[in-house]
Amino acid sequence: MTEQVDILEARPSAWQRLRDSHLWHSFVTDRVAQLSLLVFVAFALMALLAPLLAPFNPYDPAQIDILNSELPPSWEEGGDPAFWLGTDAQGRDLWSTILYGTRISLTIGLCAVALQAALGIVIGLLAGYFGGRIDSLLMRFADVQLSFSTMMVAIVVLAVFQATFGTELYQRLAMLMLILVIGIAEWPQYARTIRASVLAEKRKEYVDAARVIGLRPARIMFRHILPNTLSPILVISTVQVANAIISEASLSFLGLGMPVSQPSLGSLISSGFEYIFSGAWWITVIPGGVLIALVLVMNLLGDWLRDVLNPKLYKG
C-alpha cells in the first residue's frame, strides 16, 4: 500500500506534464504564437462581454439616433467624444456595433467548424475503419463535395432559400442558415484527414487487442482511435474557424449574410462600402481592420500548431 502511494505521489500532475512537453516549450519561446493567442483571447473576451463593454446597444432602436449618422471618430474634426470610433449610416456607435458584430462572427465561425468537425470525424472514422465499399462510397461523395467551392454552394443555397421563403424569414434564420451552409460545405477537409489517420492507427497493436477482447467497432473508433488523431483535428479547426469567418463576411458583403439589424463584421463592411468614397471611411475600414486582425492571428496560431504537432519537424 505504501509503495502504491509513493508511486502516485511520484507521478507528475497534468500541469507538470504540460510544462515538460514540447508544445509548452515551443509556445514560451515563440513570441508570435504568444502574441497571436493574446490577441485572440482579447477578441473572444470582448465579444463575450459585449453587453458589458459596449456603451450602447446597437440592437435597441431607442438608443439609436439617425441624426448621429456618419459621425467621424472622436480624434477627427467633427467627432463626438461619446462615439470614439464614430458612427455608421444608421447612427449606431461603431465601437458597440463592432463588439456585437465580432460576437456574431465568432459564433458563426465556431459553430460552423463544430458542425464540420462532427460530420467529418464520423464519416472519416467510418471510411477509414471499415474500408472497402463504405470507404469508396464516402470518399467519392467527399470528392464530389470538394469539386464545388464553399462560396458557390453557399450563394446558391442562401439565394434560393431567400427567394423561396422570403426575406423576412431568412433574416430571422440567417445565423442558423450560415452555420448549416458553411458547416456542411467544408466537412470533407476533416473526413479525408481523419480517414488517413485511421488507416495508420487501425493496424496498430492496441486496436487488435481491443478487437480480441470483444469491444464493439463504435467503441474502438471513438474511445481508442479518435484520441490518437486529435493533433491534425486541432490544426484544421484553427484554420477552418478563420475560413468560416471569412466565408460569413464574404456572404454578408454580398447581401446573403446577417441582416442590417444584427450586423456581423461582414455586414458592417458591406453597409459602409457605399459611403467610403463620400468620406465616411471609418464605417468600412475599422471593421475591416478588426476582421483582418482576427483572421490573421487565427491563421498564425494554426501555422504554429501545425509546426509543433508535426513529428517530422520535432528534433527534441
Task: Please characterize this protein's 3D structure.
The protein has helices at about 1-10, 15-20, 20-30, 30-50, 50-55, 95-130, 130-145, 150-165, 165-170, 175-185, 185-200, 205-210, 215-225, 230-255, 265-275, 280-310. The protein is globular. The two termini are about 35 Å apart. The protein is mostly helical and about 325 residues long. Helix 6 packs across helix 15, helix 8 (about 150-165) runs antiparallel to helix 10 and helix 14 packs parallel to helix 15 (about 265-275). It has one domain: Orthogonal Bundle (MetI-like fold). The longest helix has about 35 residues, at about 95-130. The model has no long low-confidence stretch (mean pLDDT about 80). Belongs to the binding-protein-dependent transport system permease family. This is ABC transporter permease.
Task: Provide a compact summary of the structure.
The protein is mostly helical.
* Low-confidence segments: none
Mean pLDDT over the full residue set: 82
Q: Give the % helix.
A: over 70%
What is the CATH C-level name?
A: Mainly Alpha
**What Rg do the Cα atoms give?**
24 Å
The gross shape turns out to be globular
CATH superfamily membership: MetI-like
Order of helices and strands: HHHHHHHHHHHHHHHH
> What does the largest sheet look like?
none
CATH topology: MetI-like fold
Q: State the total count of DSSP E strands.
A: 0
Number of helices: 16
Report the sheet-strand fraction.
under 5%
Transmembrane segments: 35-54, 104-132, 144-163, 169-187, 225-246, 280-302
Protein name: ABC transporter permease
Keywords: Cell membrane, Membrane, Transmembrane, Transmembrane helix, Transport
Family: Belongs to the binding-protein-dependent transport system permease family.
